[in-house]
Amino acid sequence: xxxxxxxxxxxxxxxxxxxxxxxxxxxxxxxxxxxxxxxxxxxxxxxxxxxxxxxxxxxxxxxxxxxxxxxxxxxxxxxxxxxxxxxxxxxxxxxxxxxxxxxxxxxxxxxxxxxxxxxxxxxxxxxxxxxxxxxxxxxxxxxxxxxxxxxxxxxxxxxxxxxxxxxxxxxxxx
Length: 174
Known about the structure:
Shape: globular
Order of helices and strands: EEEEEEEEEEEEEE
Radius of gyration: 15 Å
Low-confidence stretches: 122-127, 165-170
Mean pLDDT: 81
Strand order of the largest sheet: 4-5-6-7
Distance between the termini: 27 Å
Largest sheet: 4 strands, antiparallel
Number of helices: 0
């Protein structure tokens, strides 16, 4: 998986990353650049999937969704959000278990127990929340996102739509 600042790969269930480490994109807890792959210390076992967005990366570790780099994280209280440059992987609130696929950038989505759940940056700067995409509440098996769009596979059919204000009603999947 590659992004603007570098890349990451799964090697024997470990994550190894390389690149400029801008915004902590290498996930090793530092901002030091690495021209050769380095092991991400907290992702040294149990990794089953990895993705990279514009300035962040995400992985599935033991069924949990973890991301690092430039993140705007949902809040469990829906009253606030956290905008951070996370130089080490952090678990996304609401993705503590059951994650089978994940893709993230400034917005992100994950398949959690057959449901596609997403988070992102709202146009009115409201706190991002973890929400279920319309049409993807069961039978989901895969997800892919860009900065503004999400596609998910539901019962073998691709469904795509645009992110809009972190509101499930405005994310109609066709």
